[in-house]
Design brief:
Order of helices and strands: EEEHHEHEHEHHHHH
Strand order of the largest sheet: 4-3-2-1-5-6
Radius of gyration: 17 Å
CATH superfamily: Ribonuclease H-like superfamily/Ribonuclease H
Helix content: 40-55%
CATH topology: Nucleotidyltransferase, domain 5
């Protein structure tokens, strides 16, 4: 059985901002997809313990007031996410996350801050990284909504973590169906390959930006699945 035919864990965060070294989750989705079985879903609001900026609220709709009223305390949320992700990696169930370096870095910082043991990321699938590898010359955006259009996947509520996680899993499975060479990878090999594919893309994109008078990437943006500042470790 190829990795896309077995269990998958869709993972998505909505956050207080776009800096994975400093920002925090305000909504979490952990969606376990199983073949021939209904998905198991944990989707919940998180109280980050700080004000949620208006620009972030405008994207995902989670206000400071709502987070304080409905949200799971941040430390409890970290423990829930850690338990689910650690179990998935121990079982070699691929964690599927769009632009995984963002969500994985945020959670790694969170785990470290609450004294939770590091997770070895040995079974990850990032549709963004894989899409860039299999179709590098396609023009246009590669955000989640754009990939949904490319791969004919329904996105019911953009920037809702549950909806985004559902769509991300569907995209990953569709890519694997469309490109048999991707489905043929053993999941550990695919994880390691994605790290290389991301770095090759980052080097080329950074060079293009600088050649065209635009700001290049930050040093930590060259690494995947963790930003370099965290001393990333991908399991062998």
């Amino acid at each position: 059985m190829s990795w896309n035919e077995g269990p998958l864990l869709g993972f998505d965060l909505e956050t207080t901002g776009v800096d994975p070294g400093k920002d925090l989750p305000v909504q979490v989705a952990l969606v376990r997809w199983e073949p021939r079985t209904k998905s198991r879903r944990e989707v919940f609001i998180v109280d980050p313990g700080r004000e949620i900026p208006g620009e972030a609220e405008a994207i995902h709709g989670v206000s400071t007031r709502r987070a304080r009223r409905e949200g799971c305390p941040l430390e409890d949320a970290a423990a829930i996410v850690h338990a689910v992700l650690e179990t998935a990696q121990a079982e070699r169930v691929p964690i599927v996350a769009m632009n995984a370096s963002f969500d994985i870095t945020i959670t790694t910082v969170l785990f470290r801050n609450f004294g939770l043991r590091p997770i070895e990321w040995g079974a990850l699938v990032d549709p963004l990284v894989i899409d860039r590898e299999v179709d590098p010359y396609r023009s246009g955006k590669r955000r989640l909504d754009a990939l949904c259009r490319t791969y004919d996947v329904f996105l019911s509520a953009p920037h809702d973590a549950g909806s985004d996680a559902d769509a991300t899993v569907a995209i990953a499975r569709t890519i694997a169906g469309r490109y048999p060479a991707i489905a043929a990878y053993e999941i550990g090999e695919l994880t390691r390959s994605q790290a290389g594919w991301h770095r090759a893309w980052a080097l080329e994109y950074d060079s293009w930006c600088r050649d065209n008078g635009r700001p290049g990437l930050e040093p930590e943006e060259f690494s995947w699945p963790l930003r370099e500042v965290l001393h990333p470790h991908v399991a062998a």
